[in-house]
Amino acid sequence: MATFIDIGDPADPRLADYVSLRDVNLRKSLEAEHGLFIAEGAKVIRRACEAGYPPRSFLLAPRWIDGLRDLFDGLDVEVFVVSEALAEQVTGFHVHRGALASMCRQIRWSAADLMEARRLVVCEDIVDHTNVGAIIRCAAGIGWDGVLLAPRAADPLYRRAIKTSMGTVFQLPWARLDDWAGGLHELRDYGFTVAAMALSDDSVSLDEFAADLRHNPRKVALLMGTEGTGLSAHWISQADVVVRIPMAGGVDSLNVAAAAAVACYELREADQPFGVRGQSSGYK
Questions:
Q1: 189 contacts: CB under 8 Å, gap ≥ 6
Q2: Using one digit for the tens of pLDDT, what is the confidence trace for 22-64?
């Protein structure tokens, strides 16, 4: 059974998993070393548990205990009960949802597992965690099969990415490419048309490419570039087609997550109901 422990000292060593959640560099090293990630908010905690990620511990303000009590049944886990003021001292920010959980990190999919998919978003060096979370959320919501990440892209299991994704990082298959330089060749070998979202002289409009896909259905891997500079010249050169979103009002581009949402919607397969693929647990 779960053990409920009242804690009043922010320096209590049992709270080590929750220290300085806003310090990205510290969290990267701590979470990798101890194989954990942090779920924030009752809804996200529930989704992580229901997806099968084992909890290490919970950090809860008293008002959240009853709403999550069913999750504790049969778990041999510590539930640290703290005031919201103490939670803020430990984490370094106001935990307005009053509920955190330290979860065991698991790598559930490899790039090879996703090669039988029909629709993939491929993120090159997108370093903002909220953008990665938002892209995963839109891919899941619009019915795409998964997300591939270049080696330097942000961690989908970082707290802010999880929060922005509303927990869809637990349901949509995602994996990292091992080879940034040559990884796109593998996509082509598995029958994907590799489409780069970029501004270039030889680009075609998104609606033109979408019309071509409706006429000639095929697998698509959609490349999205890093904030600011966009896709590298190396990745653009390996694409089968370069695609742009037609813009107006003197605006040349959208935020990468917004652009991904527009492109995912336009390039979805017409015969695929929303959410079906997003509920998949993988391709193993």
A1: none
A2: 777 778 788 888 899 999 999 999 999 999 999 999 999 999 9
Buried b (16+ CB within 10 A) or exposed e, 90-115: bbeeebebbbbbbbebeeebbbeebb
The amino acid at residue 13 is P
* Alpha carbons 111 and 1: distance in angstroms, whole number: 37
* Architecture of the domain delimited by 111-267: 3-Layer(aba) Sandwich (3.40)
- The whole-angstrom separation of Cα 84 and Cα 77 is 21
Q: Where in the sequence of the chain do the CATH 3.40.1280.10 domains occur? A: 111-267
What gap in Å lies between CA 90 and CA 199, rounded to an integer?
45
With a CB cutoff of 8 Å and minimum separation 6, the contacts of 97 are 40, 41, 42
Considering the chain, what percentage of its residues have pLDDT values greater than 90? 71
